[in-house]
Write a structure and sequence with these properties.
Helices cover about 30% and strands about 25% of the residues. The chain is built from 6 helices and 13 strands.
Length: about 240
Amino acid sequence: MKPIIGIIGRVDIDEDHYQMFCSYEKLRRAIQTVGGVPILLLPTQQVDYYHLSNHEIEELTEEEEQDLIQELVLCDGLIIPGGYRWFTNFDLFLAKEAVKRKIPVLGICAGMQVLAILETEGQIIEKIKGNDPHFSKEKYVHPVTIVPHTHLSKVLGTSTIKVNSRHRYVVHHVNEEVYQVNAYSIDGYIEGIERKDGQYVMGVQWHPESMAQFDSYARKILEDFIDETRKLKKV
């Protein structure tokens, strides 16, 4: 049996202005390529997520939380994807519950920021000032330095990689009691985090799912995540 990978859905709107929740196609295909079975996790609130901002959305009720947990327990791993819109309350809840239940979690771009927020008080996200060298549609945008003796460094087996980059916001610090920063950009921004206690909770600011077909390091990150979910599958 292959591991079931829950992907948090992202709100969008079609050409007829009907709202939908969906997954990026490259993410779906990348998970299948490395041996996972992707499923979409959907919100349980009756909320207009597309037009409302986060502060306008009511807190989850106990029933809505329990419904989300029913979705989550179907999964052997959780992916918190990036997106052009901000994450919402059900992202945070699913991430918190996955960590609590020791389900492997991979946060991508905004998903990494979700993981950082879970363990850190105060405002830790800021917009990149001036000309943004971190948002481009190029296959490779900038190098990333991998911190030695981290789990990520063991997975990749190198000290530097080149990554794509499609973000305008960054995490300027993390809770150092919980997280180890495992990667930095050349201009000093945090590009990756992992839990210090050994539990598989990994975040990267770039998009390995978009590089998996042509970049061995990106593929290694996804394969490592799937390997961790297989461990849970055997329990």
